[in-house]
Design goal:
By secondary structure, the chain is α+β, with helices and mostly antiparallel strands. It is built from four helices and eleven strands, in the order αααβββββββββαββ.
């Protein structure tokens, strides 16, 4: 019964499709082609170690740049004396610029004296004549008006003789705390090459 039904079914499909019964029989016996399996997309898994290595490289580069800057271009110094007060007080952090030593009158400079760093103010340059009298500081015959200096400027007994003329590539420096500061009234004019640089920033660290 099943065979007759199958033959009738083939005959019906033959009339509907226009194909012969033999062609339909062959087509039916052939297995249907299965679609090829597509490979599953592989998602890239980020490597934690690769990211950490990249971060370490960036940190190293930034650190190296800062190290070079603060070794050859800028410098930091914590001031420990009171001779530059009130502009620079004990405990203040001072940033200075190393590359420019062509100072102007009024610049704060950092220098070494007997192994200790000092912040001092330039009051005279090469070719200037400095004198210190009972009236105060005189440069090139003019009494200096210094509104930010609140102490009298005296000469020291054991210091250089005044008046004196500043030599080439030298500066005459004074501490802002004039009455007791250790400055050019003690050690005379300073060679510019012996200074460390110009003070560009003062960060107050103590409320003194």
């Amino acid at each position: 019964m099943g065979t007759i039904s199958a033959e009738l079914d083939l005959l019906f499909k033959s009339r509907m499709t226009g194909l012969s019964v033999e062609d339909l029989s062959v087509k039916k016996t052939q297995p249907e082609a299965q679609p090829e399996a597509q490979p599953e997309p592989q998602h890239a898994v980020p490597s934690v170690w690769r990211e950490l290595a990249g971060l370490c490289i960036r940190i190293t580069i930034i650190g190296s740049v800062f190290l070079l800057l603060f070794t050859f271009v800028y410098g930091l110094h914590q001031n420990l004396d009171i001779d530059a007060a009130p502009m620079v007080k004990s405990g203040d952090l001072v940033m200075f610029y190393r590359l420019d030593k062509e100072y102007s009158i009024g610049d704060l400079v950092l220098l070494n004296f007997q192994g200790q760093r000092q912040v001092r103010r330039v009051v005279a340059k090469a070719g200037d004549t400095v004198d210190i009298t009972e009236n105060g500081l005189i440069v090139n015959g003019a009494l200096q008006q210094e509104p930010n200096i609140f102490e009298n400027t005296w000469a020291y007994e054991n210091g250089p003789a005044f008046p004196l003329t500043i030599g080439a590539n030298q500066v005459f420096v004074l501490g802002d705390a004039r009455e007791n500061a250790t400055d050019s009234r003690v050690y005379g004019p300073v060679n510019q090459s012996d200074t460390l640089g110009t003070v560009i920033t003062v960060i107050r660290r103590r409320n003194l």
